Amino acid sequence: MKSLLSLIILLVNAVTYSQIYEPVKWTTTVEKVSDTEYKLISKASIQNGWHLYSQNVPEDGPIPTTFTYNNAEASFTLVGDTKEEEGHTVNDPVFEMEITFFEKTATFEQLIEVTRDVSAVKGFVEFMVCDDTRCLPPTEVDLVFNILDKSKQVNVVADASEIKPNSDSESSSKPKKSEEGLWTIFFIAFFSGFLALLTPCVFPMIPMTVSFFIKQSKNKSTGIKNAIIYGVSIIIIYVVLGTLVSLVFGPDALNAFSTNVWFNVAFFLLLLVFGASFLGAFELVLPYSWASKVDKQADRGGLMGIFFMALALAIVSFSCTGPIVGTLLVKAAGGSQVGPIVGMLGFSLAIALPFALFAAFPGWLNSLPKSGGWLNTVKVVLGFLELALAFKFLSNADLVLQLHWLEREVFIAVWIAIFGALAFYLFGKIQLPHDSPITHISVGRLSLGLVVLSFTIYMIPGLWGAPLNLISALPPPQHYSESPYGVGYTQLGFGNVTSENHDKVPEGAHLMPPHNILAFNDYYKGLAYAKKVGKPIMIDFTGHACVNCRKMEQNVWVKPKVLDILKNDVVLISLYVDDKRKLEDDEVVNSKLKPGKKLKYIGQKWSELQTINYKTNSQPFYVLMNHNEENLIEPVAYTPDVDDYYNWLEQGIKNYKSSPAN
Questions:
Q1: Please, are residues 146 and 155 in contact by the beta-carbon 8 Å criterion?
Q2: For 287-291, which contacts have Cβ atoms below 8 Å and span 24 or more sequence positions?
Q3: Per the UniProt record, which residue ranges are transmembrane (predicted)?
């Protein structure tokens, strides 16, 4: 059951690991144009996934790239402006304007005319760099252009990593994590394709199609070849679909969608439609004319005929594969621009493999189970899973807006109802209109029913405050509930608080249930309290819809040795970067990262604090610091290993106690 739940969790996690990034390195080149003219060339090498903005950015947009050349001795004159490459121009969903940016590399050229002897020209570049989900604060890097007799001279100069306040993290970790994310997408997609293969729209096509190729081919080898071409055609069709999604929307829009409130609401409604379709309320089908035209093309024979047979399969099976493909594309798109392509590759590979394998070994067809009611059962099970996942997206929107409509108890109750109904369905106690009469329950159906029933019973104690560690990342956090300590439980006073010094909850603080950790949600109030009681500060950059934050709180923070430190040895300040509550009028200030824009929401205030101070805005992100706001130890991100996290806390506190200032 745990492996099945892990697969479900992977489908809904937007996995991001926080770190301090070093995405840009600069080199300079000098090219001699004439005896008195030189071209100063600055080249930026940009890590995959990051964007460097143009020199020409609309007002209220991101910080443009700006070059300044020091000419205190008046030894040269600038000829025109600094020129740049064409770059990519997109309608940026974050800044809501057309913006030009550069990927991978960017070259800038400035022509100068030398008026007196000069050995080098010095200057600096100020720039802002972003990826699909975060922006680093504006950075200045010094540039040195050596004016030598050689026609070209390349100089490696400082990169953004050398202008960082608090970390020496290695930049190599970013590509590694991207690669891990793509492998995760691939395997989830392959598993999803396998589920689609077991639906009544696809499974019966295997023996029919393979038999057709074997009978219509002159010999066995030709039949195998044609079946392989058929499988490859299926892969091409779905990969092209993934490519089109990436090209039409682009990575910026897709990632912006994945964290947007209205997108989560829209996807909740979409999954409800998909779920109802799988349960038999109606059937999602593409226009009949499409299938008819494709069938005519398939009759042509040859390679094109085989390709159109594969396209016909995709169209005819849409009622079963459409909801799975739609869900998969959205989740894959949250990773990167290649995510949908990798996702469709994994999905189509699972669909195509059986056709090629059974064509090569036709005797295996006899071992296939006969089509029947069990295929409809698979479809219904998928329908229940779609409904359950739908409420996760609705929960994300509710958490970000802090509406408290879908609090923890309600979410768990909904899931208990959904999976309880699924268990009754598998045991034959509930039948849907399109089901065949059940005369007996197979061993496989009984086993799956027992797993689902066990999972349903497992969730019930969650209504009374149980942490539900198996699914800790899916429901809202325990403090986001009507009764944080469990249904029917009311805490009287602070008698259950085991912290040493919390006889009275200070102003601006609250007790985080269910373990009564004293926490502040305001940086400055928490800092003042820490100075008063003489304890180090732990900043918890978090988010209401942050999956890994919930996993840390419910799987790591609850361990006795970690919990003891959080309750007694540090002052916890939890800053929610997605808090959409508006700032008071006297707190609205200009953004330091986006000149001309105002910080309107509480979450923007804390997000900018994190970005400026720590050059990252991914969550969770943990900082241990002293009263002078100096780091006691290198900040960490998602750390699921309890011992590693405990050792980090212990070392930070040890450094605090050994500091002369304390």
A1: yes
A2: 290/315, 291/315, 291/316
A3: 181-206, 227-249, 261-286, 306-329, 341-361, 373-390, 410-427, 448-466
